Amino acid sequence: MTVDKRALGNRSVCPIGLGCMSLSWAYGRQPPEKEAAELLHRALDLGYDHLDTARLYGFGHNEALIGETLKGHRQRFFLASKAGINLDEGRSVDCRPQKLRAACEESLRSLQTDHIDLYYLHRFDRDVPIEESVGTLGDLVREGKIGGIGLSEMSAATLRRAATEHRITAVQNEYSLWTRESEIAVLDTCRELGTTFVAFSPLGRGVFADSVRDIGQLPEQDFRAKMPRFLPENWSHNRELIRRFNQIAEDEGVTPRTTGPGLGAFQRQSCRRDSGDRANGPHGGEHRALDLATGRRHPHPTG
């Protein structure tokens, strides 16, 4: 199967990457090490060439897993990681220059590589000017330790400030049929500045793959159980919206998991630097799904 690739930094990658977080933490139960390694190898064989991890995921386990499993295949994939959240101080945000530099060195060791293609500030630090943090990452670019700078879960205003210090390769924000805040200003700013927009959780943390039906079955350590949209007082309302969404997909002859990411794929295409090369946009069932998610025909999700 031929897939049209998208520009990310100085590489062309498949439009759908592999977020590796759940191999170590967050959703469901952590798989055995052997199973996780098999999944990573299978992903490369299937053509996934953009792997995304972070120091936070599994408190270092995720980077170590990728480093050990794929150390002989480093040239086969674009590698992204993140820093800026302390692992030993209550997960506080800390984007001070010395912390970022130390985190990068640790990531390089864990990933068993001398170069990370894209290195994100994981969250916005209210106590450190964004220009100062980005300046430090710019030094790491010049030293050859990272290929580009990314921002995760940050606003258009922050992106503009960061871009005055150094070119920002990518912004990675949550974006799906029921998480649409990036449409307010971030997407337009990415287009204007030539910054790639990378959508995370395009399936609504599993919801639009119809893999979350009974929140009571989520494992205790699954962090979705504490998210407002998954709380019992909101779930019955949201579950009804999901049922309607699934019906739209069935009516259109597609699966929910292919309809949901259509929005993100369209927007990622639109955010490429060559903005004239744009898709014609969602159609058919995707329009109906967008209406459902935005409340133009149905209520907003709760929470």
Task: Give a brief rundown of this model.
The protein is α/β, with parallel strands linked by helices and 303 residues long.
Q: What attributes characterize this protein structure?
A:
9 strands, 9 helices, alpha/beta, globular, 2 domains, TIM Barrel
Number of helices: 9
What is the count of β-strands? 9
Q: Structural class of the secondary structure composition?
A: alpha/beta
For the biggest β-sheet, the strand order reads: 3-4-5-6-7-8-9
Overall tally of structural domains? 2
In what range is the share of β-strand residues? Answer: 5-15%
Nearest-integer average pLDDT: 87
Rg over C-alpha atoms, rounded to the nearest angstrom: 19 Å
N→C terminal distance: 39 Å
Contiguous uncertain segments of 5+ residues:
266-299
Can you tell me about this structure?
The protein has 303 residues and is of the alpha/beta class. The chain has 2 domains: 1-174, NADP-dependent oxidoreductase domain (TIM Barrel), CATH 3.20.20.100; 204-303, no CATH class. Helices cover 37% and strands 12% of the residues. The chain is built from 9 helices and 9 strands. The protein has helices spanning 33-46, 61-69, 97-111, 130-142, 156-163, 186-193, 232-251, 256-270, 285-294, and strands spanning 6-8, 11-13, 18-19, 50-52, 78-83, 118-121, 149-152, 170-174, 196-200. A 7-stranded parallel beta sheet has the order 3-4-5-6-7-8-9. Mean pLDDT is 87; it is low at 266-299.
